[in-house]
Amino acid sequence: MRLDADMPFFFGPDAGLFGMYHTPSMPARRAILMCPPLGQDLIRCHRLYRQLAQSLAEQGMAVLRFDYHGTGDSAGDSAEVDWERCVSDAATAAAELRRRAGVDRIVAFGARLGGSVALAAAAQARFSEVIAWDPVLDGDQYVAALDAMQAALREDAGRFNRPRSHSDVAEQWLGFDIGETLRRQLSALRVGTANVPTLVLDSTASSPASHWERIVSHRGKVATIVPPTPWDDLDRLESAILSHPLIQAVTGRLKEVA
Amino acid sequence: MMREEAHRFGRARHLVGIAGIPQGPAGETGVIVLNAGLVHRIGPFRLHVELTRQLNAAGYPTLRFDLSTLGDSAASGGQQTRTQAVCSDVDDAMKLLAERAGCERFVLVGLCSGAQNAHVVAATDPRVSGAVFLDGYAYRTLGYKLRHYLPRLVDPARWARRLMQRTGGQPAAPKAEAQPIFAVAPAPREEVIADFTGMVNRGMKLYLVYSGGISNYFNHARQFRECFGKVMSHPAVTTRYAAETDHTYILTGDRARLLDGIGGWLSRNFPPANAGRQP
Fold first, then answer.
1. pTM for the complete prediction?
2. A7, A50, A51, A161: which to substitute to probe chain B, counting the most B Cβ within 10 Å?
3. What residue numbers bound the domain in which A78 lies?
4. How far, in Å, CA of A182 to CA of A21, rounded?
5. Domain tally for chain B?
6. Residues whose CB is less than 8 angstroms from the CB of residue B230 and which lie 6 or more positions away in sequence, other chains included
7. How many folded domains does chain A comprise?
């Protein structure tokens, strides 16, 4: 692998979006856009996204990783993260990937809310397929889970010498300021079918098959990944999410449809 | 006004980092932020992004980057020890910031393993004129043990729990202790004291901020002096113990206070107008 095969750059409106382009090892026929999750999931998945991107580039695919406005290295404060902006940033990133790779066909991959962004942006970004790993389909449940974890964090004796005040932990989710707009948007979020071939990779261990039905009913399928991924475990909040089975599942799927 | 630039750089073009370049005169002190544990260059909960942007707004050029094999950076391919690689990586980072913003002197910032890496470079590289060590080296002192164990010895509730366990009662199951995410590998205390002494003797300014998140080996502001002796009272050394915070500043208010503390310390010791020129 060439050391400089991955190039960091800024793109998009006011060059405010950070991207990492993985040049394919041979002329690309397809491209993959990797939509990151939000909040602490983005940090936890960084290593895995890089590993997956490099594996796909070695298979001859052009890959773009990027950060939405207000996340990662992109411009904007954490409190400015906006769901609609994430979806439009995914479309902007897809256009940038088409331009760089010189191909039109883009498969989108995303973990958790990144999978939800990929599904929501599928029409606008003209994705040919979406691979969503444990996507969030019902935002109200996701918001409730984050609120519960934030409440538990206030009294986390493994983290603080004394419980913190309610105001100390208010308007944040696990390390990040949360704007009222994002809370409202996620609370109302209900992700539907993307109307493109969709593969759901399920490592939740708790979701019945019927949970995914509405996004895979037409042109999709569900594959189970083991072991389960500890997304919502406060004790592992700062541990990286690594999954060799996930990398195998995605690279295998893309070989299949090559 | 400032701009951020994405760079692939280094002796083997193996490093990735984001330089923040304020508008204004060149030749100022540059601030370089090192990885905290295995977290990529944005830092825990985006701490490094918030820090570098706040410092850019105050007029300091910055670089947050990934050391070899961390984040988006690759291995250099050379036959170096980890310590040698860290020194070479920071050398590459200083060269980049010198080229992009004209910096001649540098302040290193590191949390936990980042503090350890910053320490190693600061102890040997004359271009480093300041360092911010967040939860860096520390040792369990006699004072630590007294502060830790004495209150437990005189706590009646603790004795009651003990007694209950002995008599076959049903105490609440203790919560499994979380595994430490980050850890600073120990170095001989005399060596660390000698390093600190050498740093201040050559004119470096130091800011040590230790948090309540390392209460398994550090538990009071007095412990800086207990650990490192009189060098902690040198005018070039500033210390702060933030008992209420956790190790990675997960609460945004704690993070804001940390950033204000670093910004204030920098402006007192390296005023942007004449930063970079040795006094």
1. 0.93
2. A161
3. 3-137+191-256
4. 28
5. 1
6. none
7. 1
